Amino acid sequence: MKKKIDAMDSKIISVLEKNGRVANTELAKMLKTSETTIRNRIKRLIDNELIKIVAIRNRTKLGYDLSGNIRIKANTKKIQSIGKSLNKMDQIWYIAQLAGYDELDLEFNVPSQHDLQVLLEKINKIDGVIATKPSIRLQLIKHLGEFMAEFPDSKGKT
User: Fold this and answer.
1) Are residues 127 and 71 part of one domain?
2) What is the pLDDT of residues 45-94, one digit of tens each?
3) Distance from C-alpha of 17 to C-alpha of 147, rounded to nearest angstrom
């Protein structure tokens, strides 16, 4: 069952997406309402599993300079066991089952090309994986829920 939110909830969520640590009192001032209203609305949004406030690591600043995605062609009868194996790999932070030509789509971050090669070798050894197709991300322009990417100017500066 879908939950409904109103304009105030949308504004709260929008602010929290940019800064999950903003104080309720500051949020109340920004939205011209009381701190109690903000606190109660945030609690309801969390309790109804409409939002989750978490820390998100900046993998690039932690030395994971190479990122991208990997499409996997796999035996459809082994998708669950493949997913469990992939889920154990720290370099992979997103896994989706697909309908179409490929069965799985992954997002990864690794420190180097060598680490990507090692990751691909590990993935290709998983029983049921038929083929992998990696793509390297050149630039992250937008990704909701993580660091908002700034588009660099012509000199490569953000």
Assistant:
1) yes
2) 999 989 999 887 777 788 888 999 999 999 999 999 999 999 999 999 89
3) 9
Q: Is residue 152 part of a domain?
A: no
* pTM given for the model: 0.69
Measured at the alpha carbon of residue 23, what is the angle toward residues 19 and 28, in degrees to the nearest 5?
Answer: 105
List the 92-97 sheet strands across, edge first: 92-97, 104-110, 66-74, 129-136
Give the C-alpha separation, 110 to 91, whole Å: 6
H helices within 4-142, ranges in order?
A: 7-18, 24-31, 35-47, 79-87, 113-124
Range of the domain at 36: 7-47
* 55: exposed, middle or buried (Cβ count in 10 Å: 0-12, 13-18, 19+): exposed
Query: pLDDT, tens digit, for every residue of 24-51?
Result: 999 999 999 999 999 999 999 999 989 9
Distance CA 8, CA 26 (A): 15
